[in-house]
Amino acid sequence: MNPYLVARKIIQAVVLIVLTVVLVYIIYRLMPGNPAELFLFSAKQKNISPAVQQHILASLGLAGGKWNFENFLIYLRDMFTFNFGYDYFQQQSVLQIIEYRMPFTLFLLGTAAVFSFIIGLPVGILATWFRGKKKEAAINTTSLILSSIPFFILGVLVYIYFVAYLKLFPVTASFDFADLGQLYNPQVLGYVLQRIALPLLSLIVVEAAAHVLTMRAAMVSILGEDFITTARAKGVPEGRIMFRHAARNAMIPVSTRMALEFALLTSGAVIVEIIFSYPGIGNQLFQATLLADYPLSEGALFIIALVVIITYSIIDFVHAWLDPRISL
Amino acid sequence: MTASYRKEKLRFQLAQFRKQWRIYYRSTYGKIGFYILLAFALITILSPVLVLHNPNIFFAPQEDAYVASLELNAHVASSPSWNVSAYPPAASALSTSGSYVAYTGTPDGHVYAVGLGGAGGPAAGEVINMLNVTLPANASMYAPLVFPLNNYQRFVSSGYRVVSFDNYLAVVTTDGFIRVSKIQWPGSNVPGTGTPFLSSNLTLNTHANVVLPPVSSAQPTTYGLPPWVPFDSIDAVSLGFSNGQLYLVTGANGSYVINAYNDYPLTPAWSFKLNGTALPSIPYMMGDYYENPNQVSLIIEQGSNITSLNAYTGQLQWQKNLNVTLNTGVGVYIPYGYQVGFNPFNKFYVASGNSVYMVNATDGTYSKIITVQSAITGLASSQAIAVPNPQYFVVQTSTELYFENGLAKYSQMFNPVVLPSVQKGTYAFPPVFNGNTRNFVAGTNIGDFIAISPSSSKLTIKWLVSYSTISHDAKISSTVLMINSRTGAQSFAFMSSAGNLAVYSTSGQDINPFPPTLHAPSGNMYLLGTNTEGQDVWSQLIASFAPDWEVGIGVAAVTIVISVVVAMIVGYLGGFIGSLFETISLVIFLIPFIALLIVIASILNPSLEGAIFVLSFVSWPFTTFTLIGLVRSIKSHSFVEAAKVSGARSMQILRRHMLSNMTPLLAYLTAVNIGGAVAAIATLQFLGVVSLTTVTWGAMLQPVLNNFYFAAIAPWWILPPSIALTMFIFAFVFVSRGMDEVVNPRLRRR
After folding, report:
1. Within an 8 Å CB–CB cutoff, is residue A324 touching chain B?
2. What is the dihedral of CA B336, B339, B345, B346, to 10 degrees?
């Protein structure tokens, strides 16, 4: 590894984080309306004195209008010290809300990612193995259809059929935070599974199908490469060609996809979280953004972006490891 | 020479295309995709013919309806004067003060209280004669005013304290006689117990000719909202102000005076002579009582002039000539939040001809905001508290209701709502906004009422009721919202010229497991049934084809162009500019797109172009990264090296090698982007983030989020858009597969 390029990568990640923080600040304030006015209004109705009103506004980071530069500096300092303040409506610590919500999302996404990878990759290789046969067409068409159904339609139809019509699953997919730490207990696991099954299933189906397609496409293109022909000419067995030569190289686009997909998923899971009322960070971010709750949405967005940027930066190193041709 | 060359070239291209088409057509995916798309295109072209109903019209069901229940229909009195004008009933809507009775007056000087029901007080429909004013010949009485004035604290049980208000009743006659009385309840002054009577009477004979109904400062300027008690009791006393004021417009023959009277004790406060000759409108108050108690204004409309007076002193604040004749019937409309006057949104609305003007209450600057098809007869808005515009605004003409999204700066107009029965009657009085159920209640002069609830881009008919089916009264008064203190329920009430007081609940009653608007598919009327909003599913489905094509193609075109340019800059050019572009696209890409979309969508005006912009802005980085990878891999191929060595210029390499090698992927990405954009816009509309007036498949699915169970028992309104959307996206995915076969020969063998 070239230390210069590694340093460059790290600098890029830092620049990305800083730009994201700045952009987050700007976009929320571009939204029409000013949350300060709501507070002033309720303060007036409660006959709170102007001095106290100003104090409240300052504590909300809204003193002197929403474009006040001093507030921006305070915001920058707070973001990088993870001091996100309190949300506007419940007056809870934003960091605590994120700490509470984030594990839910990571649990859902992580489980979905692992399972879709476990299912998607072998099926993708299998599809290449069967190429030209009816089985391949069946695998292909199924994954094509599953991966291209709009996410929310799949979620809605699943919800309507299993929850609203058959009434097999609970109405909301929410469960207690403490349950996450006790998954080894079969009772708790069953309880959690019953709630998480449908959101997880919709995520896995779509993800795995996409992995199958990417894997198959990558395999097919790699099987046309010269080194495969060389390997065939050398008399390497077909299975070895598939798994050792082709599959490993095909992992590169799949791993890229995984990283990109992770970014999309943090947002994409929002839809699943909303439909199934899952207590994840995405659902929280969606609600907070709609309410123009600056601290909560900024904090949540920052944390999500941070996770995504770090994942994205790490994936390049994984790339380099998988494909020696890519220098880093 | 050149002509034959061109011809030859064309023939060659045609042959090339034929060959590619044959390869494409050999692919099963391509074939299926092509035929689905062909069908979709055909339906789109034929859609104007296929649409049976206007997809945006709300079919108010004639039967099987969600109806508002008639809570009371009491015969108050028979009086010939009802036929002259049926006065709207009055009630204190402030629930702590108690509307246990509704008060109604006659032009010939009688005031009746009608019990609204509940234990302890007057029985429902019990009529109590409260007051009889002896009127001289040629004089009549205006509708009585009921307003809260004093407040006091009352101990209900051990240590539990409630704030109550004393309600006062004021009547004013055309010859200038004013009478203010406290509405007294017998016993230990517990409102709602026993039979009310009037006490502490104060009278004042001004001997002036009163030309307009009186207005109290402690009364909302439009019916339908609880009074905001700007001058009441403890607050007022502790701040050193007098109690409330009554405003009377007196005068005759082109010379009018605004008179203010302190209402308790009843003494003259000030007078202001208007210099215009036209009959003014009823004066209304607005201002920020909390912020600036001395700066409350009184707004009067006269001819083309608007006058703002200080409500305390009667001093002229400003006068503005709008140079257009104002519709006096509409008067000054002040949204609820601005009556309280939450600065800086200090504005009110007036109408002239077919247009609505927004006037700044601080200095009288004005602007035209809405224009409709015919003369405006009424205005109403939702409550506007701490927002620059009321969220929903209703403009009423005699036959139509126009709903406006005020937050979208009046650029978004819903299709007008026309009641089926309007052909017989006309919308008679301004709609009222019911803050509890967030409905606008509009009514016709023959007693048909409709409650409409606007939300993002949709209007929902909540219920319909027809009073004329109960009794064929010739005339009804305007409607008044009341809160029943015993039940807390909001009702709306009106008087009929037959002397009946009708009280309806403001919420519709479910008389059917399905919402009334949800009709099962039936061949003769609704091919695919109607949705929860009462709109024809078939027509919506067909009308959605064109907008969805538009969004898909628009987003794909914008995205591809941006992506190709950026990908070449980043992948081929590289360097500082390359990393700059890469960083920008990374930032946009890495911020969760849902948050980005909500924010951008809330900034832009809701339109198809806006939606295309929003989606392109978010989708280009993803396409770009796919392309950057390809550009880099092409760049590392030996043929590019060879081209470079042989002295080819950058543009040549980009065009010849990059672009031509990209074409397969570009064709594929275009197809993917069209499908993706349609899916994305559908997702956004499903979440209610982007609101469009145009109907799309996503918009059709939007009500599902709140009606999962209606979707489960009545799948006809969710399956068609879901299937259409999915098929549309499948078609593009299949087409992209077929294209793969053409442009990627290596795939063909396998």
Report:
1. no
2. 150
